[in-house]
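Final report, Chapter 2: Outcomes

The project's central promise was a pipeline that accepts a single protein chain and returns its three-dimensional structure in a standardized token representation, suitable for archiving and comparison. That pipeline is now operational. To close this chapter, we reproduce one record exactly as it appears in the project archive, with the input sequence first and the structure output second.
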Amino acid sequence: MRPESRFRDWMDSRFAAVVLSQTPEEARSLVERLEQADPGPLPDPRSRFDAMYRLVDTGLLLREGRIEEAVEALESVRKRLGDCALLRLMDAWILFLEDEPDPAEEALRTLFDLLKPDLPPDLRIPSLPRDDSPPGRLDRWLAARWVGILYIQLVLYYRDAPMDWIERAEACLDSAARDGFTAETLAPLGLGLSVRRLQQLSQHEDALALIRAIRERSATLPGFPADAFVYDEVFSLEALGRREDALALCDAILANAPGDYRMRTEKARVLRSFGADVESQALCDALLLEDPEDPFVLSLRSGARYNLGDFAGSLEDSERILALAPDDLQARLSRGYARLQLGAFREAEADFDQVLQQDPQMLDARIGKGKVLSFQDRFHEALILFQRLLKEYPDHPAILYEVADVMFLMGYFDDARRHCRRCLDKEPGHSGALVLLGMMAIREKQDAAAREFLEEALRNDPENPYAYNELGYLHHLEGDDGLALQDLDTAIRLFPGYADALANKATVLYYLGEYEEAMGLAERALELSSGHPVALSARGNLLIQEGEYGDAMDCFDQALRRNPDFIDAMMGKVTLLRMMGLEDEAREWQERLRELEPGLEDELGPDGPDGDDGDGEEDGKARDVGDE
């Protein structure tokens, strides 16, 4: 065998050890064993052959996750080789490992198309520098041989790879067979693509059956690990709603390999998908101690924090991702939702607009834009946006609910109810629609109907903080503040950053005379939502107790700017105006109250709400919460 041919085969074996090994440890061990068995025809350190030899060491660094070191090593090789096929292959591999699936797929696909179809005898390749020297031929031969294998592995790694990627990977598998890869080498890759195809088609039962058949046969397939496709098995179990089975499988793997970073990430993802946000966040915290810049784990934790009401934490994680990857649309979308909840409406709108500039059809961004318009009281703009969405998605429960919510905020209760009913027709038991129906029933003094809607919402979603918040408010209206506090405490436990529940609890505690705790809750609610009418009204009433009349009036005025018909704020304002001796103004606001709420006639005596003498101990409770 000519030395050049021997070197080519020796390099191919080293590449196989690096690319096909199941673990980084196995890859390094195989390379070391190859070199011990046959040091090979080591090239002259000054030659281009030597530069390609160094590329294999770069591959080992990539397998071990030492990407920065690999990039540095690659740059030194690039200076010696210039643009060549193997360097393009390594660049694509780095994109793959840096969790950039679309650029990695494009790079690998482009390189495959350059290298594989109708390859001429002299291996000249369009858009690559012509190099017919022995090193140039070796460069293109190795890259052509391995680009398809890396493409398959890319598709196997990204579980949500689209069907056209899977089809191209299957073509790469056929090409690899023609290139002389053995059936033993290609069998795991082929089975993996079959699993991925079944999952893409949502045939998860079939995928599970195939994975289990693979496991039964693994003992007879050399080099086939017993835990092959374990991540796919977890995913299929999760997709089938078998949470406990999915978590048990994660724990079984971690019992033997407690430091398995990817499996711990998988478990954090499963916990997050099933709503176990506290546990998911705790696991993400531990993972981020090991890799503070893992964008996937940061994204998981951002979502968990958001669901737990820690909007500032969710915002922080989103911004960390954007610092690492400024074009990450999902991170920008998450930041928009966090800003929305924190009351930074203009900034949130800017995030949604930027996402929509790049992807005008992204549904979550369009819904977010509608929400931020609604939060800014731009109800007609929000309604137009949601109604356009409804034309595109006439049966989408989430959009039907958003239309109902805007209709509710605009005071169109009949239209809101109609859209809630349509939402429930499409998704029976939709807890949001049931809670909204309960809210409307409360405001129309249909307490029995309200309780029925809210309790049904809790039967369908036992940990729904919004339903507990409304039940707490209903108990408060009925005079049972003990039960009200129980429900509001449950809502806050489930959603610690829920401004409505914090504000409602502050109101209940105000009526119970627990002023210090009530003030702390009102201020916390205002930190989360700066213009929250209920929190502002509660704070205004509490400031009256402290003799801070000017600040109290400012609170009532802010609440009324946000909700001009907010009765609690009007009642507080009447009380305060009378205390300040401004009878004419007090009488004007009292008349507005009577027009809005004729039922308050008995509570509005000549001295203000409930004949209050200014000590703030009124007993009447306004039937309006100004919920956001």
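Archive annotation: Confidence is low (pLDDT under 50) at residues 606-628.
This record, like all others produced under the grant, will remain available to the consortium after the project formally closes.
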